[in-house]
């Protein structure tokens, strides 16, 4: 048996799997599209043929896929439900507090020891000093997996038994990113309209600052390389909107940002760097 199964080998899931493996744990991986498992198989890592053997392979399951609905659709089947009983499941897909609570209720009903989590970092941060992960929920699940998960970053934090805590803090933390995206693309357009290089704007900020990094992407015109696609950022933004609607707070800010994301995705930029948003503004200006 493996120590842990990792379900989802996208940009983030792969980073989690690699890091846990490098920390010395036996892992089994599974991804819906099998080609993403090949690099792991080549490195001698066990890959399951389907979600059923993936769950059977380990007492602990880590899921990092698009969203909670996708997780539910994998787990809520006649064959999978009974396999989950007495296993620990850690979910690191991005979700809302309501989704976390719903997931926790469902897991409890099916005898799963559940930890809900959120990743406040990019794939390159995983396993480094800037890796920050929030966990909440079942204390037994935390005790069973804490040692294994601590390799994921310097700040792997258990927030207690309130299942809403990790996703609430994650969405609040993400608001800062969307504010920054809007600021950088507008600043870039402002510079472009005055015939001032966006690289000059970038140089006003410290070497390591995110504003500088994003402005340099706009300046380079290369939107193909990214550690999180515009589509993934757009889905997380939709979670911020959902939380606003669920709780009844004003959603003017995420709704405004979402208008631009929708245009970018409709224009075919979903697989690109999030700074492709600037192309929507350029297009609007004709
Ligand atoms: P990604 O590269 O787009 O990968 C998405 C993953 O989800 C793939 O493994 C995909 O499988 C899987 N998936 C989607 N729908 C599925 C379904 N119905 N059934 C089974 N598998 C499904 O995304 P990512 O960057 O790894 O992000 C994964 C999660 O981590 C998201 O919730 C994201 O918000 C969160 N996250 C990402 C980052 C980041 O910087 N990338 C940071 C923090 C949190 P296929 O390969 O078959 O499509």
Query: In total, how many beta strands?
Result: 8
Silhouette: globular
User: What integer is the average pLDDT?
Assistant: 97
Secondary-structure element string: EHEHEHEHHEHEEHEHHHHHH
In short:
The protein is α/β, with parallel strands linked by helices.
Give an overview in words.
- There is one protein chain.
- With 286 residues, the chain is α/β, with parallel strands linked by helices.
- The chain has 13 helices and 8 strands.
- It has helices at residues 11-22, 38-42, 51-56, 68-75, 81-84, 97-109, 139-149, 165-193, 198-202, 210-220, 230-247, 252-266, 277-284, and strands spanning 4-7, 27-30, 46-47, 60-63, 88-91, 113-119, 128-137, 153-158.
- Strands 3-2-1-4-5-6-7-8 form an 8-stranded mixed sheet, with helices on both faces.
- Strand 7 (128-137), helix 7 (139-149) and strand 8 form a beta-alpha-beta unit.
- Helix 12 crosses helix 13.
- The chain is globular.
- The termini are far apart.
- NADP nicotinamide-adenine-dinucleotide phosphate (NAP) is lined by residues 8-13, 31-33, 36, 64-67, 70, 73-74, 93-94, 119, 122-123, 227-229, 232, 236.
């Amino acid at each position: 048996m493996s120590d842990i199964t990792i379900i989802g080998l996208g940009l983030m899931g792969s980073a989690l799997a690699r890091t846990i493996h490098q920390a010395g744990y036996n892992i089994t991986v599974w991804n819906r599209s099998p080609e993403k498992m090949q690099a792991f198989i080549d490195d001698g890592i066990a890959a399951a043929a389907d979600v059923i053997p993936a769950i059977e392979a380990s007492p602990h399951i880590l899921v990092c896929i698009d969203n909670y609905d996708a997780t539910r659709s994998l787990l809520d089947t006649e064959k999978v439900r009974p396999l989950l009983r007495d296993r620990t499941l850690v979910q690191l897909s991005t979700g809302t507090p309501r989704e976390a609570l719903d997931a926790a209720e469902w897991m409890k009903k099916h005898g799963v020891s559940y930890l809900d989590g959120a990743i406040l970092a990019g794939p390159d941060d995983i396993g480094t000093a800037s890796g920050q992960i929030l966990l909440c929920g079942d204390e037994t699940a935390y005790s069973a997996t804490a040692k294994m998960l601590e390799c994921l970053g310097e700040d792997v934090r258990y927030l207690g038994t309130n299942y809403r805590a990790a996703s609430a803090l994650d969405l609040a933390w993400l608001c800062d990113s969307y504010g920054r995206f809007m600021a950088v693309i507008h600043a870039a357009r402002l510079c472009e309209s005055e015939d001032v290089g966006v690289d000059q704007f970038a140089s006003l900020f410290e070497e390591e600052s995110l504003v500088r990094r994003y402005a340099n992407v706009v300046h380079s015109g290369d939107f193909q390389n990214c550690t999180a696609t515009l589509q993934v950022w757009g889905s997380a933004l939709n979670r911020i909107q959902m939380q606003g609607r669920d709780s009844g707070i004003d959603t003017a800010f995420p709704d405004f940002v979402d208008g631009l994301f929708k245009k970018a995705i409709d224009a075919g930029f979903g697989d690109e760097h999030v700074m492709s948003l600037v192309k929507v503004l350029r297009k609007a200006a004709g």
